[in-house]
Structure to design on (252 residues):
């Protein structure tokens, strides 16, 4: 069994197509783990790929009572509820060092779902590209108890340029600029990107502000999200805010 982790980005969607074209369909299960903080366009894109390609994607969300629940395009959270429930349970915020949002909102719920349908061991295909060698080597070294990572885009030597060419040739695409990525204000994004995004969609920063106030802590030690929102209203002040970005499991 191969579990295909469809993050909702262009790279992972291309990977889904490659898997569909090169593997036995009966051996594949496509899965999307929704945190509730993905961009709305991400959910639209996952659904469109699913409908056009017949992926039969399983939509999963974390819930504190049963550890996971199955949702769909219509019922998936769009207001951060799964993420908020996890934060309230843990009583602290994820950060660049302790990224429990990746494990607890994505990896573990998908693993628990597979176990619930009798899948005890499996391969997990990730949309890491050939030109993401640092991410690839780091994940390849990671030891997992019940699954083994597969890297189809690395195997087929797919780069970011190949991904863009692929989507240019399709009749549809993810309606998000590739610079913004899926999770709206993920703490792994660089400050400059978050400032630019806050300027475009200030209303989406409020959830992050609320979570910081709830816990009395910050997602990023360097600044509070409320300060970031205020700074985004003064573009002349953040030209030098080039905090480096760190990639995470969520992918492109």
């Amino acid at each position: 069994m191969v579990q295909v982790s469809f993050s909702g980005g262009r790279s992972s969607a291309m990977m889904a197509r490659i898997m569909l074209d090169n593997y036995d369909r009966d051996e594949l299960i496509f899965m999307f783990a929704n945190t509730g903080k993905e961009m709305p366009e991400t959910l639209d894109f996952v659904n469109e790929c699913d409908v056009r390609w017949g992926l039969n994607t399983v939509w999963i969300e974390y819930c504190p009572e049963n550890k996971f629940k199955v949702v769909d395009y219509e019922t998936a959270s769009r207001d951060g509820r799964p993420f908020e429930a996890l934060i309230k349970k843990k009583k602290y915020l994820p950060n660049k060092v302790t990224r429990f949002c990746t494990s607890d909102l994505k990896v573990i719920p998908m693993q628990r779902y597979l176990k619930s349908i009798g899948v005890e061991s499996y391969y997990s295909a990730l949309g890491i590209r050939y030109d993401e060698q640092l991410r690839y080597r780091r994940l390849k070294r990671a030891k997992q108890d019940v699954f083994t990572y597969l890297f189809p885009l690395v195997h087929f030597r797919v780069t970011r340029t190949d991904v863009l060419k692929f989507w240019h040739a399709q009749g549809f695409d993810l309606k998000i600029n590739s610079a913004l990525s899926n999770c709206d204000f993920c703490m792994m994004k660089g400050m400059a990107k978050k400032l630019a995004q806050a300027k475009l969609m200030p209303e989406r920063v409020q959830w992050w502000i609320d979570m910081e106030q709830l816990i009395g802590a910050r997602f990023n030690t360097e600044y509070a999200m409320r300060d970031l929102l205020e700074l985004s209203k003064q573009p002349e002040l953040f030209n030098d805010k080039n905090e480096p970005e760190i990639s995470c499991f969520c992918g492109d």
About this structure: Residues 240-247 have pLDDT under 50 and may be disordered. Residues 100-116 form the longest helix (17 residues). The domain at 2-168 is CATH 3.40.50.620 (Rossmann fold). The radius of gyration is 18 Å.
